[in-house]
Design goal:
Layout lengths: L18 H6 L4 E3 L16 E2 L2 E4 L9 H11 L3 H22 L9 E7 L2 E3 L4 H7 L4 E2 H5 L7 E3 L4 H5 L6 E4 L9 H16 L7 H4 L3 E4 L5 H12 L7 H12 L13 E2 L5
Parallel strand pairs: 1-3, 4-6, 4-8, 8-9
Antiparallel strand pairs: 2-3, 4-5, 5-7, 9-10
């Protein structure tokens, strides 16, 4: 998949990349993301490095997926495609939001968003921000109140998490792939559950009762929003499978694929 990039020089990680390697590259610009998280080893406020323009824009913090799509579309001459994509994302969120607006007591439903058995998302984290928009109570946000933070360690905050034994759902957002068999999807879930059930929050009723779902992290945030909203509030009139199929057909290069909802969301006992 990445053969075309094999001959390009490595510049290290995105937080503190190798500036010397960047300076030697023939790149015209550096897409670095926000300075709080990316390329932090250059001066704050710097707009260029070694004669190369630094482009900074959120691509996941606070759910800034649309901003990233528009920026990348602009710099790759794919403006029209990017605009179409963002308008589609807006339409999905608008449809789901309209349905959610009919529910008056959304905050009485609560969830904890985890990306692993040892880390939970909160506040500025892209997925956590997206899930919070649903209107249900994000337990992570009640524990980490600093809106600039993106999450925390489950073991570190276990005492605080365990105070919320009335939470309704744990939403696990791992990477899931289209070539997974149903057995591999279940294995991924079972491996996660095994870690959680022996961890610091194993006493939670949500863990003991396996009130846990998986949603594919690789989906656009609008689809994470739609899927989670439908899971948390099953009575809303939202066709998540139709939305995912539309995404596959119109905005990916996936071919010869038979749709399997387990590749995008997994609810124990439903498959």
């Amino acid at each position: 998949m990445y053969k075309a990039f094999a001959s390009l020089p490595s510049v290290g990680d995105r937080s503190t990349p190798d500036l010397e390697s960047i300076a030697k590259s023939d790149a015209d610009a550096i897409y670095a993301g926000t300075e709080k998280y990316y390329m932090t080893n250059v001066d704050s406020g710097a707009t260029s490095y070694a004669g190369k323009t630094i482009l900074r824009l959120a691509s996941w913090e606070n759910g800034g997926y649309a901003n990233g799509a528009l920026m990348i579309g602009f710099f790759t001459d794919a403006d029209e495609g990017a605009e179409k994509f963002v308008r589609w994302m807006d339409s999905v969120e608008s449809k789901v939001g309209s349905e959610l607006s009919k529910i008056s007591d959304k905050s009485s439903t609560s969830f904890l968003n985890v990306s692993s058995a040892t880390y939970f998302g909160a506040q500025a984290d892209g997925v956590a921000t997206t899930l919070t928009k649903i209107g249900a109570t994000n337990i992570g946000n009640t524990i980490i109140t600093d809106t600039s933070k993106v999450g925390g360690s489950v073991p570190t905050y276990a005492e605080d998490i365990n105070k919320h034994n009335d939470l309704d759902l744990i939403i696990y957002t791992p990477y899931m792939y289209l070539n997974y068999s149903d057995e591999q999807v279940k294995e991924k879930y079972n491996t996660f559950y095994s870690s959680l059930s022996t961890g610091k929050i194993s006493a939670l009723d949500a863990v003991k009762n396996q009130d846990i779902v998986m949603i594919n992290y690789e989906l656009p945030f609008c689809l994470v929003y739609a899927i989670a909203a439908k899971i948390l509030f099953p009575d809303i009139d939202v066709d998540v499978d139709g939305m995912i199929k539309e995404y596959i057909d119109d905005y990916t290069d996936v071919e010869s694929y038979t749709y399997n909802p387990n590749h995008f969301y997994y609810i124990p006992g439903s498959a």
